[in-house]
Amino acid sequence: VSCGAPDDDLDEHQIKTLVVQSAPMDVAVQQALFERVVSDQCTRHSIVHSLRWLIERGFRAEASHCRTIALTSGSLAALRVLIMEAKVDVCGMELLEEGTRRTGRNNE
User: Fold this and answer.
1) Which of 29, 43, 102, 108 has its CA nearest to residue 78?
2) Which of 65, 77, 11 is nearest to 39 (CA)?
3) Which DSSP string corresponds to 17-28?
4) Phi-psi region of 104 (alpha: psi -120 to 50; beta: other; left: phi over 0)
5) pLDDT tens-digit profile of 25-48?
6) Which of 14, 31, 95, 101 could pair with 10 as two cysteines, CB 3.0-4.6 Å apart?
7) Which residue in 25, 17, 33 sits closest to 65, CA to CA?
8) Is the pTM of this model over 0.70?
C-alpha cells in the first residue's frame, strides 16, 4: 500500500482508511480492533455493531473472545453475536481461571 512519499505523515483519515482496508487480510489488525472495542467504554449497541463489522470482514472469533466479552462488558447481545452468528464453540469453556474463588458471605 502506497501512502505517498516516505517522509509524509499520515493524517487520521488516511490511517483509518488503511486499517479498514487491511482488516479483512490481517489477523493482527482484527485482533487489535477487537481489543479496542472491548477496552473502550462503548455502549453495548456499539460493541454488537463492531463485532458484526469485524465478522463480516473475516474476523475468526474464538472462545477466548467470548470470555473477554463476558468479563469486560458482560453484554449478552455481544455474546449472542459471537456464539450464534460467528458460531463460536464455547462447550467446556471456563469463564474464570482455575484457582479463583468467589468471595462473599456464603463462601467464607
Assistant:
1) 43
2) 65
3) HHHHHHTTT-HH
4) left
5) 778 888 888 888 888 777 888 899
6) 14
7) 33
8) no
37: its cell numbers: 472495542
pLDDT digits (tens, 9 = 90+) for 4-16: 444 456 566 666 6
Q: Which three cell numbers stand for residue 70?
A: 463476558
For residues 21 and 64, give the distance between their C-alpha atoms in angstroms, rounded to a whole number. Answer: 25
Cβ contacts of 14 within 8 Å, gap of 6 or more? 3
Among 33, 31, 19, residue whose Cα is nearest residue 62:
31
CA atoms within 13 A on the CB side of 100: 5
